Description:
mainly beta, 111 residues
Amino acid sequence: QFVESGGGMVQPGGSLRLTCVTSGFTFTTYDISWTRQAPGKGPEWISTIKADGVTTYYKESVKGRFTISRDNAKNTVYLEMNNLQLEDTALYYCTNPGVGRGQGTQVTVSS
């Protein structure tokens, strides 16, 4: 199970920190990703953190603005988002293909 939180409405240039609390599987052995879906569009992969907690990958458009991290003691993954832009507006959810995904948390960037 994945439960996301931390979304909200911010102005362009603002920041948010998303949290994904997981349960029901051996968190420390799974890579976890953040994906987003904007209205009328398909899912878009944003970032992945591997089980080692060190190796990370980012979509080019969020590099330098977003930071993914994990706390294996809390079975939790975070996504720190800075300098948010209008095009970052979407439903953000965490996922692992073999486990599933959460319901998501809405991020709205609006002036």
